[in-house]
Amino acid sequence: MAESPFKADIERVQKEYSEKMTPGAIVYIPGSSVVNKTGGWRVFMPQFNREKCIRCFMCYTLCPEPAIYLDEESYPVFDYDYCKGCGICANECPTKAIEMVRESK
Amino acid sequence: MPMRKVMKGNEAAAWAAKLAKPKVVAAFPITPSTLVPEKISEFVADGEMDAEFIKVESEHSAISACVGASAAGVRTFTATASQGLALMHEILFIAAGMRLPIVMAIGNRTLSAPINIWNDWQDTISERDTGWIQFYAENNQEALDLILIAFKVAEDERVLLPAMVGFDAFILTHTVEPVEIPDQEVVDEFLGEYVPKHAYLDPARPITQGALGFPVHYMEARYTVWEAMENARKVIKEAFDEFEKKFGRRYHMIEEYKTDDAEIILLTMGSLAGTLKEFVDKKREEGIKIGAAKMTVYRPFPIEEIRALAKKAKVLAILEKDISFGIGGAVFADTSRALINEKEKPIMLDFIIGLGGRDVTFDQLEEVVAISKKALEGEKVEEVNWIGLRKEIL
């Protein structure tokens, strides 16, 4: 499994981040929105079929989050901490290698 | 030596701004406050004031520019009234939530409709929940002094909230009175420079202001505004003490006049307090045990002072130039909160008076006393009374 390209950022922020409310709710740590995991908003979850993937990078390029990054073999990896399940990747995938499935929690 | 000049209330507010040395003033003209930014722009043009004067296209933009300037870390001032303040409404919450100590002068004017440019407090009273500290001035001297005090309180680390100072439209804004202009050096000592630790612009320290607050953070953010407003009680009293030491004039959360043996106490705000003092003197000569009280600070609401005042009175009559439709006057509702759990409390009556610039006359005040006396004698009277209504046209 490939590592998130934001790993260093996330670790830095997690180290510096404090839950303490500041006057005016000012955010003093640049990039700290990464600690706000938005995957919980998801209703449909992209399910990836490696067999069908032709590594065209369409999903990787078009993910607005971006919650898709590439592994060592250039296959997409989905970061479910931030994927909001918008379904753009599945919609754009030319080989239907991504399927949106209802997620139950 | 302090200089004495005869000036309008608006000029007094502009002088206060000049003495406080804000770096940015953004304002849009509106009756009856126009003279405040007009005078300030003169000071700036004449090189007497080193401020950026931003001409904007609306009050919404004026307060937005002030939010930007204050967020960048400089002392900021503006002035408006009535519809202009109403147009600022959404940004007022933002200024308070972002903890930006902007100070604003308000020539208290009513709201449309019908369109009316004259005095009551409906404009500022309607903004009571925004998180702004609110002062009300009785005369032009108080308008000047309270603006200086407002900066002192707003910028205090324990507070960091915006503040507005109201002074009655025309009665004060356009009426000349002798005003003592304090020495610049003493004002400099009193206020110091505004050096914020929380909100300022520095590329070496990137920060985000005004970010989204999810449900997991929003309540805590709001609670810190509540705490700041609670802290303001103490900070305001400290500022009043220091102001007296430096300038010799004494301010109180609630100023009392002949209340010690009073059966009826008339409580009000703003310039009406002056009228009430005259009226109390007259009634005292007639042997009526009556006193008056002036609320100088409306937000934070002076709860303890109200409790102390209420202990002295058998009838607490609240005279206010505002109306919250469906309940009564806002000051009456707030005063009720202060007294609701007190074991002994006076009869409380609300008098809606002087709306939209109607003069408050002694005849009207006699009516207030007559109703208060009836209540004192055990007769049932209305809790909310409209005084001086022209019943013949209704």
Structural class of chain B: alpha/beta
Mean pLDDT of chain B: 97
Structural class of chain A: alpha+beta
Task: Tell me about the largest β-sheet of chain A.
Answer: 2 strands, antiparallel
Q: How does the overall form of chain A come out from the CA principal axes?
A: elongated
Question: How is this structure best described in words?
Answer:
The complex is a heterodimer of chains A (105) and B (394). Chain A has 105 residues and is α+β, with helices and mostly antiparallel strands. Helices cover 19% and strands 15% of the residues of chain A. Chain A is built from three helices and four strands. Chain A has a two-stranded antiparallel sheet. A two-stranded antiparallel sheet of chain A has the order 2-3. The two termini of chain A are 24 Å apart. Chain B folds into two domains: 3-247, Rossmann fold (3-Layer(aba) Sandwich); 254-393, Rossmann fold (3-Layer(aba) Sandwich). Chain B is 41% helix and 19% strand. Chain B has twelve helices and 15 strands. Chain B has helices at residues 9-20, 35-45, 59-71, 82-97, 122-125, 140-154, 184-191, 215-247, 272-285, 303-312, 330-339, 362-376; strands at residues 3-8, 24-27, 52-55, 76-80, 103-108, 133-136, 163-168, 176-181, 254-257, 264-268, 290-295, 297-299, 315-320, 347-352, 384-386. In chain B, strands 3-2-4-5-7-6-12 form a seven-stranded mixed sheet, with helices on both faces. In chain B, strands 9-11-10-13-14-15 form a six-stranded mixed sheet, sandwiched between helices. In chain B, strands 1-8 form a two-stranded antiparallel ribbon. In chain B, helix 1 (9-20) packs parallel to helix 6 and helix 3 packs parallel to helix 4. The longest helix of chain B has 33 residues, at 215-247. Chain B is globular, with a radius of gyration of 21 Å. The interface between A and B is medium-sized, with 10 and 21 residues.
